[in-house]
Structure formats: structure tokens, C-alpha cells
Amino acid sequence: MSGLFKKRLDDSAESRMEHPASKSWIFFTFLLAFVLCIVFGEIFWAPDFVALTLIFWTLREPDRVGFLTAFICGILMDALFGTVLGQQSLAYVTLCYLTFALSRRLPSFDLFGQSLHILPVLLISQLFVMLVRLWFDGLWPGWEWFLASVTGALLWGIWTKLLTPRALRSASL
């Protein structure tokens, strides 16, 4: 395995207190995630970068990023893509809840193990979106629509490296 997957996400309380992420860095990462979702929005296998960012910050900074942030991000995604208002909010709040439920377990795994745990979280979140779409539109998106969760889980290690604040990256070297 590569060194990328061997690194663990340092999510201990001591690490957060020594190297807390700035609010501007958190905001910038969400802005980047929204831009990437807009750019790759039409590609069916493209991951939901906002969901990955929510998972990362819910694990790393649970006092700053939580259910309210998930709800607001969901409303913004619905407004951006013109979908039923609240559909992404339901998915993101569920994703946030599942991430909180796994928050004690996930940091003990390497990035590959975390990816395996994040895959079902992303699939459940995407399932909520699909159920709302089926309810309102009655259109089945096809099984390939779930590839977005698979690519999201595959990109988890790289995304974690990108979102980790620079102060923490330099301190861990």
C-alpha cells in the first residue's frame, strides 16, 4: 500500500486544540467543494465534494461544522442545481449524523480503512437523494448513478490531504 493510505487522520482532541483550523480555511474548503461540484456536476460518476468536505470537517472540527452547516450546504446545493428544496439537506444532515456516529471509530483506521467506512455513509446519503427524486419525478437514475459514492470513497485519501490545514501538515512531518 502507498504511504497515502497508511496515514491516519489525526482527530484527537489534543490535535484540534494544538492546531485548530481557521474559520477562513474551513470556509475556503467548502467554497472549493461547491465550485468543484458545479464544474463536475453533469458527470454522473463525479463525487459529491461537498459531502466529502462535510465528512472531513465533521470528524476534524465537530464544534464548528455540524448539522446546521450540513443543512445550509444542502439548501445551497438544491438552489444551485434547481432540485427539490430540502432534498440535499436531508442527505447531508443524515451524512453528518452517520459521521458523528462513526467519529470515535474512524480515526483509528488508516485512510484505506476510513474509505471503506465512508463508502456506506456516502451510499446512504445518495440513497436519500434518490428516494426523494423517485418520489417526485418517478425516474430511476440507474445503478451507475451510485458510482459517485464509489469515486468519493476512492478520493477520500487525497481529499483528506488537501483539506488538512497547513499547520497540521507541517507539524506532522
TrEMBL record:
Nucleus is among the record's keywords: no
Keywords associated with the record: Cell membrane, Cell shape, Membrane, Transmembrane, Transmembrane helix
Membrane topology field: Multi-pass membrane protein
Keyword Transmembrane: yes
GO BP term, pick one: regulation of cell shape
Pfam families given in the database record: MreD
Compartments where located: Cell membrane
Residues spanning the membrane: 25-45, 65-95, 116-136, 142-159
A single cellular component GO annotation: plasma membrane
InterPro entries per record: Cell_shape_determining_MreD, MreD_proteobac
PANTHER family registered for this protein in UniProt: ROD SHAPE-DETERMINING PROTEIN MRED (PTHR37484)
Family: Belongs to the MreD family.
Protein name: Rod shape-determining protein MreD
Organism: Sutterella wadsworthensis HGA0223
